[in-house]
Design goal:
Layout (H helix, E strand, L loop, with lengths): L1 E9 L3 E8 L7 E9 L7 H16 L5 E9 L5 E7 L2 H14 L2 E8 L4 H9 L4 E4 L9 H13 L5 E3 L6 H10 L6 E3 L13 H14 L7 H6 L4 E3 H16 L2 E6 L4 E6 L4 H6 L7 E6 L8 H8 L1 H8 L3 H9 L10 H19 L2 E7 L2 E7 L8 E5 H6 L3 H9 L14 E4 L5 H7 L4 H11 L4
Parallel strand pairs: 1-4, 4-10, 5-6, 5-7, 7-8, 8-9, 11-16, 16-17
Antiparallel strand pairs: 1-2, 2-3, 11-12, 12-13, 14-15
Length: 456
Amino acid sequence: MKIDCLVAEIGSTTTVINAFDGLYTDNPQFLGSGFSSTTVLEGDVNIGLNHALNNLKDKLKTSSLIAKETFASSSAAGGLKMSVHGLVYDMTVKAAKEAALGAGANLKMITSGILDQYQLTEIQNLDLNIIMIAGGVDYGERKTAIENAKKLAELKLNIPIIYAGNIQNHNIIKEIFGFNNQLEYLYISDNVYPKIDVLKVEKTRQIIQEVFHEHIIKAPGMSKVKKIINEDIIPTPGAVMESSKLLQKAIGDLLTIDIGGATTDIHSVTKGSENIEKILIAPEPFAKRTVEGDLGIYINKDNIIDLIGKEKLLKELNLLESEYSNLIKNYQVIPTNKQLPLTERLTYEAFNIALNRHSGRLIKMYNASGKVIYAEGKDLTNVKHIIATGGALTKLKNREEILKTVINTQNELILRPPKSATYHIDKDYIMASLGVLSKKHPKSALILLKKSLELI
């Protein structure tokens, strides 16, 4: 069977491979998905990928599947592990962080100021994929970024390092990396914080994804995958962001929630309201991602249970201690009927907590003139659409009720989406795949995305 495209999504717990055809027509088609457990622990994610491919062949009733183009996204084994190092946390460090998270990175370390020996030792032990150096507005402070560049180049880590700070430093940064025989690993980007209260993160996000694709073959278990992928490989969270940005241009401001086995990610694509923008104390990116590494409903289920409280959970679900212990002991990635109420409760909690962390808030303060109100963080009050993707929110029976219950929980001080926002489920569970696909086929990706969300 010959088709246009296969897109693999290698996640922390599951591997999915999606088949598409008709990409060069006005009616592209999603043909189906194959699933498998991700085989990181076996030392080779290609095993799970082959299982998923065989599962897809069985569903399509074919013994052979030949695709013209093959793409992939990955968040297995920690995904894209990065650190960012800037000048002042609330300024350049925050800007670098937004660039990294928006590209799909898993941030392992964030520092401000000149790196000390303890921090350098930690960097050496983190097994990072990429490091980013920022610091100083253009034509402003230079020393911090230069010193950090020297110290990192001297470590000779042989991994990509992106410089996204004061443009006056470009030549000296190149000299430093050249002197340490690390120039091949250096990437120069726009300053992520070129002027006070200005974020400029898109070029850096693009470079991060390009670097990830270029160097992914060095990751354990990924070299075999690269041999069968002839197009882009990008971080899965970055792929979801690409789909979210593509969709926002078509339907308006939105928020995408992706609850997985290891993390809960929220992507918002909105400028917010003009009224809130006037009182915002620091700039926010138009497209923002937050990742909550403690809110996965499989790998991190115990942490969510602790946040709810075990006794409260038993009471809400009307469970005996013995029933609860048995559920936890036999907890499955794909929930059984008995496990379903527990999984749905954990999904609700993950979404509610993650949304509060992602949302901005109003701050009431008093000065000589009386009470004044400021805003900090991401304003979501103009969001018109809630997009649900990820294993939990595309498969659970009561997924729409979970979404509505969370959004209907309002707080006048938290800048959450309004109750009037509409809900759309990624029923085909292809949002990440379409984000990768949009790099080459944006028109077809948008049509397929709207079909999955039942917008057409």
